[in-house]
Amino acid sequence: GIQVEQSPPDLILQEGANSTLRCNFSDSVNNLQWFHQNPWGQLINLFYIPSGTKQNGRLSATTVATERYSLLYISSSQTTDSGVYFCAVTRGNTGKLIFGQGTTLQVKP
Amino acid sequence: KAGVTQTPRYLIKTRGQQVTLSCSPISGHRSVSWYQQTPGQGLQFLFEYFSETQRNKGNFPGRFSGRQFSNSRSEMNVSTLELGDSALYLCASSFSETQYFGPGTRLLVL
Lengths: 109, 110
Description:
The complex is a heterodimer. By secondary structure, chain A is mainly β. Chain A is 0% helix and 57% strand. Chain A has strands spanning 4-7, 10-14, 19-25, 31-37, 43-48, 52-56, 59-64, 69-74, 83-90, 98-99, 103-108. In chain A, the strands form two sheets. In chain A, strands 2, 4, 5, 9, 10 and 11 form a six-stranded mixed sheet that branches. Chain A has a five-stranded antiparallel sheet with strand order 1-3-8-7-6, with no helix packed on it. The mean pLDDT of chain A is 95. Chain B is an all-beta fold. In chain B, 0% of the residues lie in helices and 55% in strands.
């Protein structure tokens, strides 16, 4: 089956710093989503981005489908950005999301 | 629109018991998927329902089952609970490609 790898596994930043999270996937996909898991466990949608670039405030994401990777950029990080960021993909006509292991981000004040 | 809701939010059971978790999708969403999250295995797909039919199933034993009702609400059931079933169970609903998750049910098996 398709493999999803995220890097780095852990990231510690000072407030105000920028960061880039990476997601590599082993086969072609037709859906890619980025999520932020808050301290209470809920997965919050950040982007649906099977290809191209999108921006939402301080966050932006780019997926290069032909090279099988996606990047999530966080600029001017805030302490509220702390948590776990997941990349998840689907392949074919299915709602089965395959998740990476996540990147745990800690933003220090 | 209201988001995905899951009940109960927290649950404590003992080994051998069974449990039923409920998920109400966003209004208009017909697809509901379930996931299990544990520290060791991460987020794993359990099953997906669409219009009351199971469309996909993950690699979980038959103790894990689910169903979907005509109003798109879904339940999952775990019978003969084991300690390893302790996890956060997440439900997601979708209308097209984007999946929206509920707050989850934390199950502790003692």
